C-alpha cells in the first residue's frame, strides 16, 4: 500500500485533487465550512456548484443507507439519486459520482485503461459486509477491467486511533474477517481500513495500486474535516467524488 499525504494532492478551494490523466478524484475538506448534505438546500447548492467548478454535466449520488448495494450508472438511469445504496460505478464521461461521509470511509476505484470508476461509502456495516470487494466484483462482471491496472484510493475517515466499538462488534469482526486481533484492533479500537485492505488484496489488486490518504476525521488538526463522533448535535458532510474527462 502507498501512503499519501496532503503534499501529493493539488489543493483547490476546499478540495484535495488527485489527477490520473483522464480520471480525476477529489476529497472535500471542511476548510471553508462547506458541507455537502443532500438533505439541505445549502448542501444541494454546494453539490451543484461542483458542476461549474469542474465543468461537468452532472453530479450523481445515492440515498446512502449503510448497505452493500452497488449500482452501475449511465445517462438513462434518470432516478438514480433516489436509489438506496452505497456504491456507484460508471464509465460515463463528464459526470461525477460521489459519496457523503463524516467518519465513514470513502473509497474511489479507478481503471485508467478501461476508463471505469467507482465511489463507495463504507461505514462499519458496509465494511463488515465487504462492500468494496462486492463493488470490485461488480466492476469485473460488467466491464473489461484489468486487475493490474485498477487503482483503489482510501480517503479520510475515522481511524484506528479514534474508533472504539463494542465488545460484541469486535468479536463479530474478528470472527468474520479472520484478521489477527492485534492488527485489526487496539483494545476495542477498530481499523476499518485493515478490513477494506484485506478485501482489496483478496480481489487481487496490486499492492502498489492501493493508496491511502492518512488523515483521521476525528483527530486530524492540520486539515479541517467533518466528524460525526466529534460533533455536538449538528455536523457537516464531506463529499468524495471522481469523474472521467
Automatic annotation (TrEMBL):
Catalytic activity line of the entry: S-methyl-5'-thioadenosine + phosphate = 5-(methylsulfanyl)-alpha-D-ribose 1-phosphate + adenine; adenosine + H2O + H(+) = inosine + NH4(+); inosine + phosphate = alpha-D-ribose 1-phosphate + hypoxanthine; adenosine + phosphate = alpha-D-ribose 1-phosphate + adenine
GO terms for MF: copper ion binding; hydrolase activity; S-methyl-5-thioadenosine phosphorylase activity
Keyword tags: Hydrolase, Metal-binding, Transferase, Zinc
UniProt-listed InterPro entries: Cu_polyphenol_OxRdtase, Cu_polyphenol_OxRdtase_sf, Cytotoxic_necrot_fac-like_cat
Known role: Purine nucleoside enzyme that catalyzes the phosphorolysis of adenosine and inosine nucleosides, yielding D-ribose 1-phosphate and the respective free bases, adenine and hypoxanthine. Also catalyzes the phosphorolysis of S-methyl-5'-thioadenosine into adenine and S-methyl-5-thio-alpha-D-ribose 1-phosphate. Also has adenosine deaminase activity.
Family: Belongs to the purine nucleoside phosphorylase YfiH/LACC1 family.
NCBIfam families per record: peptidoglycan editing factor PgeF
Name recorded for this polypeptide: Purine nucleoside phosphorylase
Organism from which the protein derives: Clostridium sartagoforme AAU1
High-level lineage: Bacteria, Bacillati, Bacillota, Clostridia, Eubacteriales
Amino acid at each position: 500500500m502507498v501512503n499519501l499525504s496532503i503534499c501529493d494532492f493539488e489543493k483547490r478551494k476546499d478540495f484535495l485533487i488527485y489527477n490520473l490523466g483522464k480520471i480525476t478524484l477529489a476529497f472535500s475538506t471542511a476548510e471553508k465550512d462547506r458541507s455537502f448534505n443532500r438533505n439541505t438546500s445549502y448542501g444541494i447548492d454546494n453539490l451543484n456548484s461542483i458542476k461549474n467548478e469542474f465543468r461537468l454535466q452532472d453530479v450523481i449520488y445515492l440515498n446512502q443507507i449503510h448497505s452493500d448495494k452497488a449500482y452501475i450508472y449511465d445517462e438513462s438511469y434518470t432516478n438514480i439519486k433516489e436509489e438506496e445504496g452505497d456504491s456507484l460505478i460508471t464509465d460515463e464521461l463528464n459526470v461525477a459520482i460521489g459519496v457523503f461521509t463524516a467518519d465513514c470511509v470513502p473509497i474511489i476505484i479507478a481503471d485508467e485503461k478501461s476508463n471505469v470508476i467507482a465511489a463507495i461509502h463504507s461505514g462499519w456495516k458496509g465494511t463488515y459486509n465487504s462492500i468494496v470487494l462486492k463493488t470490485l466484483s461488480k466492476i469485473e462482471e460488467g466491464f473489461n477491467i484489468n486487475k493490474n491496472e485498477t487503482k483503489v484510493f482510501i480517503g479520510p475517515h475515522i481511524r484506528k486511533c479514534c474508533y472504539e466499538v463494542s465488545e460484541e462488534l469486535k468479536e463479530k469482526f474478528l470472527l468474520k474477517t479472520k484478521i489477527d486481533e492485534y492488527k485489526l484492533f487496539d483494545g476495542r479500537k477498530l481499523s476499518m481500513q485493515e478490513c477494506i485492505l484485506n478485501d482489496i488484496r483478496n480481489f487481487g489488486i496490486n499492492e502498489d495500486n492501493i493508496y491511502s490518504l492518512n488523515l483521521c476525521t476525528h483527530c486530524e488538526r492540520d486539515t479541517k474535516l467533518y466528524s460525526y463522533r466529534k460533533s455536538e448535535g449538528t455536523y457537516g458532510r464531506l463529499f468524495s467524488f471522481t469523474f472521467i474527462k
